[in-house]
Amino acid sequence: MPRAIVCLLDSVGIGGAPDATAYGDEGANTVGHIAEWAAAGKADRDGLRAGPLNVPNMDAMGLGAAVKLSTGNLPPNLSATPRGGRFGVGREVSKGKDTPSGHWEIAGVPVPFEWGYFPHEEPAFPPDLIAAFLERTGLPGILGDKHASGTDIIAELGAEHIRSGKPICYTSVDSVFQIAAHETHFGLDRLYEICRQVFELTAPLKIGRVIARPFVGETSESFKRTGNRRDFAISPPEPTLLDRNAAAGNQVFAIGKISDIYAGSGVTHKLKGTGIPQLFDKTLEAMEMAADRAFIMTNFVDFDSEYGHRRDVPGYAAALELFDRRLPEIIAAMRQDDLLILTADHGNDPTWPGTDHTREQVPILVFSPALPQGEIGIRQSFADIGETIAAWLGLAPGRHGKTFL
Ligand SMILES: O=P(O)(O)O[C@H]1O[C@H](CO)[C@@H](O)[C@H]1O
Ligand SMILES: [Mn+2]
Ligand SMILES: [Mn+2]
């Protein structure tokens, strides 16, 4: 009996989105540029990695071929000829180049509305929203109130935050209200509680997520974010693949950030994990526990949060290589009728200006022991992934997307 596993490599885009210009991202290509920089010796870091990008296992599943299909160019050290599975390219129809938009569409639900965004101005947040927030929480004020990178802003304002007790509030090009606060000086539960308050206040503005960004350390040089990030997210507007599989009485394993991204909806088993190795361990654990018709989905967030937003090319390359080294463990744990899909939710080209996501197409790399090698082309919506999995698991067809198997 079938099962399905999705490894979502957060932000591992492959360029070529036809609407990239509208986002200022024409030419962005996360995998392609990392491979180019690595081949040119520009992704070396002592003690971490060196030389051309080395991802033979993903490449065998069609990573190089997918980049070529997406952009017309084969990046250095990747191959145009996969050695197993089916490869293709996913094109997003939802307008946001953010995590929930990508994930919901992958689970069969393109986002039918425009998210609310905060302007690239200071203050970024509407004064009446902040006034209501301060009134509800009794806080003495906020710091930040602008677009920022989360690591930069804690270095800039962390000390003042500790002194004043004012939380650091910031946003980005995504539909987010983020709050950074110190885990002990401010308190983790208190941070979660004020996020909950903001989440209620921002719901009418269609803000996708309020994100708690706890950190530790005592000085600007040593402040460090912890794994206790928590996302308070709007619920998807229609039942996703997760809801549909759970409603059919099947297991749905949400690993890492997945449960938060779908607001917990349709999740029957939630497994926490931080970092690529632990997320792999949890995925393997879920594969051991999973019954027939189970759906397992893991979000590997580090590509995005640790390397993409930080514009860290060697770090991103090393993370891809680490993922690639462990991929055979998942393949070895697969049963004959398990389906594995590697894909991504958007791009985050670490060679691109700024620190935000980039509008890109994504790889769709499909593997099942029984499935012959082949190509699935450029899919016109990420929803084709969800629809294919739904069919694989024996669920009734959904409202969006077409199966590609
Ligand atoms: O710079 P950090 O705090 O990592 O923020 C990033 O993380 C947010 C959620 O993925 C994005 O919108 C981007 O702003
Ligand atoms: Mn993402
Ligand atoms: Mn991100």
The secondary-structure element order is: EHHHEHHEHEEHEEEHEHEHEHHEEEH
Q: Rg from C-alpha positions? A: 21 Å
Order the strands across the largest sheet as they lie in space.
10-9-11-1-12-13-2-14
> Largest sheet, if any?
8 strands, mixed
Total DSSP helices: 13
- Helical residue percent band: 25-40%
CATH topology (fold) name of the largest domain = Alkaline Phosphatase, subunit A
Class of secondary structure makeup? alpha/beta
Tally of DSSP β-strands? 14
Number of domains: 2
N-end to C-end Cα span: 17 Å
| Bound molecule types | 1-O-phosphono-alpha-D-ribofuranose, manganese (II) ion
Percent of residues in beta strands?
Answer: 15-25%
CATH superfamily of the largest domain: Alkaline Phosphatase, subunit A
Average pLDDT level: 97
CATH class of the largest domain: Alpha Beta
Q: Uncertain runs with pLDDT below 50, 5 residues or more?
A: none
Any overview of this molecule?
By secondary structure, the protein is of the alpha/beta class. Helix 1 crosses helix 12, helix 5 packs across helix 7 and helix 11 packs antiparallel against helix 12. The protein is built from 13 helices and 14 strands. The longest helix is centred in the last third of the chain and has 21 residues. The protein folds into 2 domains: 266 residues, Alkaline Phosphatase, subunit A (3-Layer(aba) Sandwich); 107 residues, Alpha-Beta Plaits (2-Layer Sandwich), CATH 3.30.70.1250. The strands form 2 sheets. An 8-stranded mixed β-sheet has the order 10-9-11-1-12-13-2-14, with helices on both faces. The two termini are 17 Å apart. The protein binds 1-O-phosphono-alpha-D-ribofuranose and manganese (II) ion (MN) (2 copies). One manganese (II) ion binds next to helix 11.
